C-alpha cells in the first residue's frame, strides 16, 4: 500500500472572486511535514461544437493575463451553485456562440495543472447544432467573435502555434484522434472523479454563516 499523504493543518492565504489559495501541511514519506500551496478553483466546462460539415465553433476573445486575443473553444466556470456540468456547458454554448445542440458526449476530462491547483475541466462534444438569437455580452465578451474552422485546419493551427489555449488544444486533438480511431465517446453521465468541489463548498459554507 502506498503512503497516505495526511494533511495535519491547513490555512487560507487568499480568498478571491474565482480562486482561493490555501497552504496545507502534508506528511511526506519518511515522516517529514511539508507545506503545499493549493489553488482552489471552481472548475470549468468547455464545448467542441461541430456542425454537419465538420466545422467547429471557436471564439476569439481578449485574455488579460496574456495581453492578447486568443482563439478558443467556448468555455466557462462551474461557479453557479447547484448547476450540473452539462447544464453549464449548454449555458456557455448559448452565451458565447449563440448555439444549442441536441447531441452531447464527453470528449475528454482534464486536470489542468495538478501540481498546484485542483482546477479540472470537462470538455464536451456537441453535435446536431442549431442557432439561437444573439446573446447580450459585456466586458471582454462584448467583442467576442465566433469563427467556424474545419477540424483538420484547427489541428494544423494547433501544431503551428496559432491555437495555444490548453483546453482548446486538448479538445481539438482529442476530437481528431477519436474520429480517426473510431473511438466511442462516453455519455454525459460518465463519472468525473476529479470534479473540483472545495471552492464551491467553501463559498456555500460562508453564505450559510452570513
UniProtKB/TrEMBL annotation:
Listed A to Z, the keywords are: Hydrolase
Q: Does the keyword Ribonucleoprotein apply?
A: no
Annotated region (Disordered) at 189-210
Q: Where is the composition biased (Basic residues)?
A: 201-210
List residues of the Nudix hydrolase domain: 39-171
Q: Does the keyword Hydrolase apply?
A: yes
**CDD domains per record:** NUDIX_ADPRase_Rv1700
Q: Which InterPro entries match?
A: NUDIX_hydrolase-like_dom_sf (IPR015797), NUDIX_hydrolase_dom (IPR000086)
A single Pfam family it belongs to is NUDIX
Protein's UniProt name:
ADP-ribose pyrophosphatase
In its UniProt entry, the species of origin is given as: Gordonia paraffinivorans NBRC 108238
The upper taxonomy is: Bacteria, Bacillati, Actinomycetota, Actinomycetes, Mycobacteriales
